[in-house]
Amino acid sequence: MAQDPDCIFCKIVAGELPSLVVAEDDDTVAFLDVNPATPGHTVVIPKAHHRDLLTIDDDALQATLATARRVAATASDRLDAVGINLVNNCGAGAWQTVFHFHVHVIPRYEDDPLRLPWVPTPGDRDEITATHARLTA
Fold first, then answer.
1. Among 3, 35, 71, 77, which is most exposed with the fewest C-beta within 10 angstroms?
2. How far is CA 46 from CA 85, 133, 137, in A?
3. Which is it for the CA torsion 52, 58, 60, 64, positive or negative?
4. How far apart are CA 4 and CA 11, in angstroms?
């Protein structure tokens, strides 16, 4: 299993750093975030080191997302969450700070303080159509 000796998440996988594990299998581990956005905020990672969404292989991605779904279901059931955000930040420009692929499972509650920075507003139809053409060319 590929590891990066300087990666904080690889150190958690290796048992070199403490964590509060909430789920684990052969390929993934999920642990509570030490800087939680809401109660139950969990980080789900593949045990093998993959830098980000653009470099992770399909099998590791599938395993990580399956664990994230299990963690989300548990949080919804046991923490009485009214919703769940799954968040992945890919690259420094998207707020990725730990360069080991991970998914945040963030339980949401009535009146919780978390506000994400993006607020949907109607887009320009011509720009949307032009973007579509670029993506499908």
1. 35
2. 19, 34, 33
3. positive
4. 8
d(CA 123, CA 127): 8
What domains does the chain contain, in order, with CATH numbers? 8-136 (3.30.428.10)
Q: Where are the alpha helices (DSSP H) in the chain?
A: 8-13, 58-78, 125-136
Q: Facing residues of 120 across strands?
A: none
* Residue 63, Ramachandran bin (φ over 0: left; ψ between -120 and 50: alpha; else beta): alpha
- Reduced to 3 states, what is the DSSP secondary structure of residue 13? helix
Distances (CA, A) of 30 to 7, 27, 38: 16, 11, 16
Three-state DSSP state, 99: coil
Cα distance between residue 35 and residue 54, in whole Å: 25
CB 11 within 8 A of CB 4: no
Specify the pTM.
Answer: 0.89
Which residues are identified as catalytic?
102
Query: Whose CA is closest to 109, among 84, 90, 129, 134?
Result: 84
pLDDT at 120: 61
Question: What confidence tens digit (pLDDT) does each residue in 8-17 have?
Answer: 999 999 999 9
